Amino acid sequence: xxxxxxxxxxxxxxxxxxxxxxxxxxxxxxxxxxxxxxxxxxxxxxxxxxxxxxxxxxxxxxxxxxxxxxxxxxxxxxxxxxxxxxxxxxxxxxxxxxxxxxxxxxxxxxxxxxxxxxxxxxxxxxxxxxxxxxxxxxxxxxxxxxxxxxxxxxxxxxxxxxxxxxxxxxxxxxxxxxxxxx
Length: 182
Hints:
Elements: H1 16-29, H2 42-49, H3 53-65, E1 69-72, E2 76-79, H4 99-102, H5 124-137, H6 140-143, H7 152-165, H8 171-175
Helix pairs in contact: 1-3, 2-3
């Protein structure tokens, strides 16, 4: 078992698992770790670095997936000789972008947030014409606060409209309430 000193910078935005994996990879290239060396068990390294075991497991999985380590069930994880023997080119970005910066925000096609109407589909010219017509015809009594049960004229028009739709044998009559409240 090898004994390598790993230091983690918790103030960086770089995830701890990435810092561990990169430190182990760099130690392999600087010959602090020789190919074939067994890495410490995940629980032991996690305890030594004071991180969750899953952080170390994630770092080891990255090393295995990139070909820097080999996992042998029942035996442990071992460092392997890098393919080509050369260290990968340094990346330009020192820290990875935040998770929210990884994917571009797609344009919103349908906004499903409650309480937000589709204002781009609202018939503004028709609404403006209807509003102008109604305001010109409205008396001063209709411009103030009306009765809480609604304007009698509006209630009558809605009741007449609904009476045409509700038939004794129709679907509405089976499901509709006995009285219409507006």
